[in-house]
Amino acid sequence: MSSKVLSNSSSLMNEYTYKILNNLSLKVKITRNDFQISPTALFQMAARINKKRSFLFVSKVLGKHLPVNPITSILASSLLASKYMKEILHIEDEQFTLKRNGFLESITQFGSNIEIKPYKLPQSTIFIGFAETATALGHGVFDNFQNAFFFHTTREKIENKESIIHFEEEHSHATSHYCYIERNQIENQNPIVFIDDELTTGNTILNIIHAIQSEFPRKSYTVLTLLDWRNEESIDQFRRLESNMGIEIHVVSLISGEIEVDCKDEKMKKETYQHQSDKFGKIVPIDLSDINTSTSPYYHNSSASNYLWQTGRFGLYSSENEEFTHYIHSIAQKLVPFRSGGKTLCLGNGELMYLPMKIAALMGKEVYFQSTTRSPIFVSRNEDYLIQSKYTFPSPEDYSIQNYFYQIEPHLYSEVFVFFERELVEGNMSPLLSQLASLFQYVYVVTLSTRKDDVIHANGPQ
């Protein structure tokens, strides 16, 4: 059983074969890689526990299933922004070399944060990140621009807010997406840019375009993605939609290519990892009551507090970025004194990725970031397989949903800061916190929103 690269072409170094499990392998042929970024810098492979899709490109830059240097994630978004400027706006990004070199260096070492000057877009543009995996990637792309508006789709059903766009993601374990912005924020002809981590069929993109065109029609869309693996049949589906709807769909990726899956009809072997510990670390809530937090007026009955405004779930304008930056700096300054000096993990929760990722990037060297997820990945202790450890718990926001985190071994880190968007019932957090306490000497609980009220946040200038 193995998830490492077994072979690649000796001439162009653009063909790779991954043996994921004994009965599952994948061939990858890179057809376009303009920025000359090695695929090994972007992803590895694992088996997915999902009847609809047996494999998973496990990103090494998203901070979802694998721990990453948060600066790597932020600069991966910046490279997508550079590609958008070059291919869609036909503008050379003056900061491209800084971004690319910083990205490559961050993979192997912790350096200083790189200050990116946002580019002012000639036309107000809407950036949309996809839950759950690409909420941070989308927000990170948006951060590279002025004259921009951002929101991310969500899997959460909110009690007192209507979703104006609803669509499905068929291959996912949680298929429904909702969009909780105001109608006037999309009822216009501003360009729309979707950001997702990977396209395999592209069906999710087609589904949201159908949903938007039915209510808020426009002439063109752009898709930004780290990886584009669509085959000719999937690309033809895009062409047919363009023809049928009289629209244009532009797809921009860091790497594009073709994949070929070889999956023998065998039952997946039983997972071999099981963590047990009789030692438990200390769980310490951190008080952020002295930090000014912008809460939304929206809530779910599972929580005693409202959703945060700064996540982008309800929309953010680039004019709000200065306030956002001040907010994350304030939290980072509050958390740094709790570090013991060794390796530290900041753990986001579900869709809450970009805020803790940006905070982690401000907390000094040897601070890693990753997030909990709904995605069930096959785990094995075989030394050649990627995902070696897996922890399961009910979602603190919804006990009916199973969540996971991966690739954490006992004593690997000095401490963990686990982030929650909203104040939750203490018992709902216990399964996750107990798992973490069996792995870390200190578990610091960072709850960002602790208010429940009806004050409506003034959502920036339009």
Describe this structure in words.
InterPro entries: PRTase-like (IPR029057), PRTase_2 (IPR041688), PRTase_dom (IPR000836), TRSP_dom (IPR022537), UCP020967 (IPR011214). Helix 2 packs across helix 8 and helix 7 (321-335) packs across helix 8 (354-361). The protein folds into 2 domains: 70-262, Rossmann fold (3-Layer(aba) Sandwich), CATH 3.40.50.2020; 282-449, Rossmann fold, CATH 3.40.50. The model is unreliable at 1-12 and 454-462 (pLDDT under 50). It has a 9-stranded mixed β-sheet. Helix 6 (232-245) links the parallel strand 11 (220-228) and strand 12 (248-263). Helix content is 23%, strand content 29%. It has helices spanning 39-42, 70-87, 96-108, 135-142, 203-215, 232-245, 321-335, 354-361, 426-437; strands spanning 5-8, 15-21, 24-32, 43-47, 55-59, 119-129, 145-152, 165-168, 176-179, 192-199, 220-228, 248-263, 282-286, 316-317, 344-348, 367-371, 390-394, 402-406, 415-422, 442-449. It has 462 residues and is of the alpha/beta class.
CATH architecture of the largest domain: 3-Layer(aba) Sandwich
In total, the number of domains comes to 2
Structural class: alpha/beta
Q: What is the CATH topology of the largest domain?
A: Rossmann fold
User: What is the element string, with H for helices and E for strands?
Assistant: EEEHEEHHEHEEEEHEHEEEHEHEEEEHE
Strand composition percent = 25-35%
In one word, what is the shape?
A: globular
CATH class of the largest domain: Alpha Beta
- This entry's quaternary arrangement is single chain
Using the CA coordinates, give the radius of gyration.
Answer: 21 Å
Profile the largest sheet: 9 strands, mixed
Mean pLDDT across every amino acid position: 90
The number of helical runs is: 9
Number of strands: 20
Distance between the termini: 53 Å
Q: Helix amount, in percent?
A: 10-25%
| Strand order in space, largest sheet | 1-2-3-12-11-10-6-7-14
Q: Which residue ranges are poorly predicted, with pLDDT under 50 across at least 5 consecutive positions? A: 1-12, 454-462
Domain Orotate phosphoribosyltransferase-like: 42-258
Protein name: Adenine/guanine phosphoribosyltransferase
Organism: Heyndrickxia shackletonii
Domain TRSP: 310-436
